[in-house]
Amino acid sequence: MPNSKLIIGIDEAGYGPNMGPLVVSATAWRSPRELDVCELGQMMAPEFQAKPLRKGSTHVPIGDSKLINQGKTGYASLLSGAQFLLSAIAKSHRPAFLDEVLEWISPDDCTRLRQVPWYRDSCPPRESSGFTRELESCSFHNAEKKMAQLGLEIVDARVRIIDEPEFNRQVDRLGNKSSLLSELSLNLARTMIDRHAAVDEPISVYCDKHGGRNRYQSFLMASFDQEWFSVVAEGQRRSKYQANWAGSSMTIQFQVEGDSIFPSAASSVLCKWIREEHMLKLNTFWQSKSDGVIAPTAGYYVDAIRFSKEIESVSQKLNLSRESWWRKK
């Protein structure tokens, strides 16, 4: 019987906005069985912290992406955290371009995204600031050393990127975006488990709560070939389920502030970075097609309304329906 366990952390970026993609990410980790995942964030400090890089920083930015993506170094900090994760998985190769990364970790979505005008073209890669690059060599080495001391290894990452037309199609099919998030998250969990689970190795999956949903049993059974999941808890703060899968015991839980769990926090950084890159593409596209100056948008409702009014005439000239760039819910 292996002395390890498989941990999968899942998080999303872009669930709330009306413009831009919904991005859902899963990272898979292997650790000693006795390692307490809920305390892992504290154990990983100070080498990993949920804050942006500043001059003199020696940490890798992993944690709640909203706390990292702040100030002038917010983007560079997200990029640094994402590059650490990807290079740790790849061991030696460090992907530098978004398109290269997506072919690797989001193969299901690349072809479809190329059909969406504002995601079709590549943008020049945005580099970390000079001092950020100088910090990475030391901080990455210290972070790798801490992971080795704990016996923790990241083994994989997978991402789903749901553009606006696809988002609307899937919401029409399922009835609401909460169901879409649950389906995407659990299908990612299934993919990771199929790729990496070992016989007799316990499996733990950690997700954020999906909207106001407390009950997930039907989604779990749909993603896992109608396998029965026993309810451990279902409530406003946490819902937890248990099953046996492919010879292993498996628990899957959904909790408020799920990105407080370190593997989910890693996924939070990865999907936030990918969404930020796609929002750059979106803003660049509409600004290039407009005769006037259009301030960029992050896609959230109030500012997205402002942005939608400014691009309306351009959209009509390009024969692009509102449904192609505005998410229904």
Write a short abstract of this structure:
This protein has 329 residues and is an alpha/beta fold.
Query: How many E strands?
Result: 9
What is the class in the CATH system? Alpha Beta
Poorly predicted regions: none
Shape designation: globular
How much helix, percentage-wise, in residues?
40-55%
Return the domain count. 1
Order of helices and strands: EEHEEHHHHHHEHHEHEEEHH
Alpha-carbon Rg, integer: 20 Å
The assembly state of the depicted protein chains is: single chain
Largest sheet: 7 strands, mixed
Widest beta sheet: strand line-up: 5-2-1-6-9-8-7
Mean pLDDT across all amino acids: 91
How many helices does DSSP assign?
A: 12
CATH topology: Nucleotidyltransferase, domain 5
List the helices and strands and how they pair.
Elements: E1 4-13, E2 22-32, H1 40-44, E3 48-49, E4 60-61, H2 65-68, H3 74-90, H4 98-105, H5 110-113, H6 117-120, H7 130-150, E5 153-162, H8 164-174, H9 177-196, E6 203-208, H10 217-223, E7 230-234, E8 238-245, E9 248-255, H11 262-289, H12 301-317
Parallel strand pairs: 1-6, 3-4, 6-9
Antiparallel strand pairs: 1-2, 2-5, 7-8, 8-9
Helix pairs in contact: 3-7, 3-11
Q: Can you tell me about this structure?
A:
The protein is 44% helix and 19% strand. A 7-stranded mixed sheet has the order 5-2-1-6-9-8-7. The protein has a two-stranded parallel ribbon with strand order 3-4. The radius of gyration is 20 Å and the shape is globular. α3 packs across α7 (130-150). It has helices spanning 40-44, 65-68, 74-90, 98-105, 110-113, 117-120, 130-150, 164-174, 177-196, 217-223, 262-289, 301-317, and strands at residues 4-13, 22-32, 48-49, 60-61, 153-162, 203-208, 230-234, 238-245, 248-255. It is built from 12 helices and 9 strands. With 329 residues, the chain is an alpha/beta fold. It has one domain: Ribonuclease H-like superfamily/Ribonuclease H (Nucleotidyltransferase, domain 5), CATH 3.30.420.10.
